[in-house]
């Protein structure tokens, strides 16, 4: 028989207090539950909505070819890899995926991690030590920040996309003996703007810094056949460490690092998520291989994505929404923020939109700066013109009713 403890446990009461605080500020949320497949229109919490919230840029989450690849790999190789990569969990299909990505990106080698988060955190933390320096854009992804902290290197943060500021920081530490790592997101996930990869590469060359780009939101979106921002800027030979994700446009799960053979060999030996966490099930690797084949064969998906993104952005701006970022120019990608300002009102706007049939996530402080709360919209290649127009109409109607427009 289970006996309830009579004394109320209070060890975690500080968490309850913090949750109450979130509720007070109106930024507490419940998880929305998807009841069918990820798609341009789908069902969350029992409601059919036009989906402007996923990272499913190319509609690959439910693509028949990818599904087939996953099923066939499951039938042939089972559901799990059974170990970490370095012990007994490297399957042939893992190697095939890494070779596929390296060839696609035009680099010597590639290592796949369990997620983009693990790729960033595992790489930054293992290639630097406490005598080194990390020069990082202030809006870089959380996984870069965590990796930087784990490395114990000294962290210098430059103002968003401010190349001159990055140079100032590099100059400050130029005479120090430690290595320098210059790091930026290729596409920033909150404003949808593109990092100045080409100009940062020049700086890295000039100051002898290691150059690293996190291309999570650019993988499958920017560059030839979706090769990413580094390809978009023609900088493949100048970026030492290229990170990408398999969890967004690629439609499955995982992250990868591309670079020289030695970089990848080193990560095989030293990156902690690679060494201490089990590798992907074979189905995931097979899905990703099929996705890269699609990118190579069907670039029209990417064209459709950009066509939709341009149209939606133009219409949002024409309707009078604030689609600006922290800097101008604002969004240059399929991510478009609709800035509301106040956190509570933003969350209300997002809830009202949902009730009216549009799913767009509210994002408030501390994810974005205070006063810059927004609902974030993401276009995909699979939204029809009809769905986009319907979404625009709903956004406009709800915003007018709430006094946002
Ligand atoms: C989403 C994202 C990641 C993490 O990728 P996952 O594969 O989802 O773990 C890393 N960096 C950036 C910039 C991202 O947007």
From TrEMBL:
It comes from Edaphobacter acidisoli. The modification N6-(pyridoxal phosphate)lysine is found at residue 248. Signal peptide: none annotated. The keyword Acyltransferase applies. PROSITE patterns: AA_TRANSFER_CLASS_2. One of its GO terms (biological process) is biotin biosynthetic process. GO terms for molecular function: 8-amino-7-oxononanoate synthase activity; ligase activity; pyridoxal phosphate binding. Residues 48-395 form the Aminotransferase class I/classII large domain. It is an enzyme of class 2 (transferase). This is 8-amino-7-ketopelargonate synthase. The keyword Lyase does not apply.
């Amino acid at each position: 028989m289970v006996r309830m403890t009579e004394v109320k446990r209070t060890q975690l009461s500080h968490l309850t207090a913090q949750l109450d605080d979130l509720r007070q500020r109106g930024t507490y949320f419940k998880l929305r539950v998807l009841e069918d497949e990820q798609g341009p229109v789908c069902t969350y919490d029992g409601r059919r909505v036009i989906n402007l919230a996923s990272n499913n840029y190319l509609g690959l989450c439910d693509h028949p070819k990818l599904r087939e690849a996953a099923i066939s790999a499951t039938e042939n190789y089972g559901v799990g890899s059974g170990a970490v990569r370095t012990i007994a969990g490297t399957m042939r299909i893992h190697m095939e995926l890494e070779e596929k990505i390296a060839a696609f990106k035009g680099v010597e080698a590639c290592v796949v991690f369990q997620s983009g988060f693990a790729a960033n955190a595992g790489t930054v933390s293992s290639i630097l030590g406490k005598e080194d320096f990390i020069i990082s854009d202030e809006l870089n992804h959380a996984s870069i920040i965590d990796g930087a902290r784990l490395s114990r290197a000294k962290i210098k943060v430059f103002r968003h996309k401010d190349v001159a500021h990055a140079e100032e920081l590099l100059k400050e530490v130029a005479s120090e003996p430690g290595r320098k790592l210059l790091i930026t997101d290729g596409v920033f996930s909150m404003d949808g703007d593109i990092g100045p990869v080409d100009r940062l590469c020049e700086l890295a060359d000039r100051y002898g810094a290691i150059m690293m780009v996190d291309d999570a939101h650019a993988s499958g979106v920017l560059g030839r056949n979706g090769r990413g921002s580094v390809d978009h800027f023609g900088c493949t030979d100048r970026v030492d460490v290229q990170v990408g994700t398999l969890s967004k446009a690629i439609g499955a799960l995982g992250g990868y690092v591309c670079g020289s053979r030695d970089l990848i060999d080193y990560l095989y030996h030293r990156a902690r998520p690679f060494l201490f966490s089990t590798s992907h099930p074979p189905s995931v690797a097979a899905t990703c291989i099929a996705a890269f084949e699609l990118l190579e064969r069907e670039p029209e998906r990417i064209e459709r994505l950009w066509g939709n993104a341009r149209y939606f952005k133009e219409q949002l701006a024409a309707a009078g929404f604030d689609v600006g970022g922290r800097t101008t120019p604002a969004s240059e990608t399929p991510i478009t923020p609709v800035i509301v300002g106040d956190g509570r009102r933003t969350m209300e706007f997002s809830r009202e939109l949902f009730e009216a049939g549009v799913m767009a996530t509210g994002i408030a402080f501390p994810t974005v700066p205070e006063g810059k709360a927004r609902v974030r919209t993401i276009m995909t290649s699979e939204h029809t013109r009809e769905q986009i127009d319907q979404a625009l109409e709903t956004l406009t109607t709800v915003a007018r009713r709430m006094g946002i427009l």
